[in-house]
Amino acid sequence: MRVNQLANELAITADTVRFYTRIGLLNPNKSPVNGYKIYNDKDKSRMQFILSARKLDFSVDEIKVIFSKTDHGESACHLVRALVKQKLDETEQQFNEMVKLRSRLSQAVDQWSTMPDNLPTGNMVCHLIEGTHQANLPTASVNQHDKIKLTSMEVK
User: Fold this and answer.
1) Cα radius of gyration (the chain)
2) CA atoms within 13 A on the CB side of 146
3) In this predicted model, what pLDDT tens digit does every residue of 111-136 receive, in sequence order?
4) What is the pLDDT of residues 88-108, one digit of tens each?
5) pTM for this prediction
6) Could you give the CA distance from residue 99 to residue 66 in angstroms, rounded to a whole number?
7) How far apart are CA 37 and CA 7, in angstroms?
8) Which of 33, 37, 32 is nearest to 7 (CA)?
9) Biggest alpha carbon distance in the chain?
């Protein structure tokens, strides 16, 4: 099948297929008649894998490493599990940082709602922000009930 056929079957753009071909994740054959790239079922499967992996936030480089293993007949499942676990840990850490930021922002909104809008001075741009290190806007601690434990998802 040609690039547009593959793209249509997977509901993606032809440019997406061309991108992954250009960076070497897809390796279509060239038609001897007209030089068009011809994609086979293996290319389609690889493209489906790429799309699924990208939805799980795998980088192009990580996908290349996975393909390098499978292209040599090795299982990549151990690597995939480790990468998903690492991504889950990172996501949980980012989430907890966002909960802390949300708390700080909420506290600032509450405290600043009654404060005046002062004009800038030679040393101060906005007393609301510049006063946060002096005001009691703590670096919010996350209560246990505010934490959400992310669980790993089944990867198919």
Assistant:
1) 25
2) 13
3) 888 888 888 887 878 888 877 665 55
4) 999 999 999 999 999 999 999
5) 0.69
6) 33
7) 13
8) 37
9) 76
